[in-house]
Amino acid sequence: MENTIDKSVFLLDMDGTIYLGNVLIDGAKEFLDKIISEGKRYIFLTNNASKDKSTYVKKLEALGIRAGKDDVFTSADASISYLSKLGKKRLFLVGNTSLRNQLLDAGFEIVDERNQDIDAVLVSFDTELNYEKLWIACDYLQDGYDYYATHPDFVCPLEGGRIMPDAGSIIELLFACVGRRPIVIGKPEDKMIEALIGAYGFKKDDLIMVGDRLYTDIAMGYKSGIKSVLVLSGETSLEDYKKSDVKADYIFSSVKDMVEKI
């Protein structure tokens, strides 16, 4: 494992990496300030599609972090890019109002009823989930329509070690019902990096992923051919890491310990 980090663009997960719930992780601000002072850049790269860029910017600013909309890239952004290229613009959505509005603003059409002509089902982190929505999704999936997910995270970490169900838990429920799994667009798939590079013009060799989840953050680094940093401040423990086949290029207790390595 290397001791210094010579990359110029840090792709940063948020939940579990920069903050937990509404609490900033110790040392996160100093870490971000060091990136800027070294003439480098950070992009907040999150799988959480339930909030738009403005919401993330407001949250980051409230935590004392400098950020603009161009500093945030979500699985919703990646999904919009990917599905637009495929021409999948008429969707049945299992997602909340924020994601719905992001899709509508990007020119998508959202269908809410059964027995309509759609291009695909899109599943995401739905904080407004109800039984009817799940049932309709099952109907469309049984009919064979294309099936995508913004991201596969099972849980969303909160402060105090608590969690809440995320998109991956909804995916598992649908799998138990209809036996189908979606094409995932966000982390850990390289579609996320491809969409990011397309949006910003970065070179892949300049990128490094920093996150707390082996099966999304670190796995994406491996799949995309970019280096990765695992921080143990969120979902993954050192014991989890030792048992896993997914390996990071660097491991730190938190981003606080990365400050002197940039």
TrEMBL record:
Active site: D13, D15
GO molecular function, one term: metal ion binding
Class of the enzyme per the UniProt entry, highest EC level: hydrolase
Co-factor: note: Divalent metal ions. Mg(2+) is the most effective.
Keyword Metal-binding: yes
One Pfam family recorded for the sequence: Hydrolase_like
InterPro entries (alphabetical): HAD-like_sf (IPR036412), HAD-SF_hydro_IIA (IPR006357), HAD_sf (IPR023214)
Record keyword Hydrolase present: yes
Keyword annotations of the record: Hydrolase, Magnesium, Metal-binding
Cofactor(s) of this protein: Mg(2+)
Residues the entry annotates as binding substrate: K187
Enzyme Commission code: 3.1.3.-
Protein name in UniProt: Acid sugar phosphatase
Originating species: Anaerococcus lactolyticus ATCC 51172
Gene name in the database record: pgp
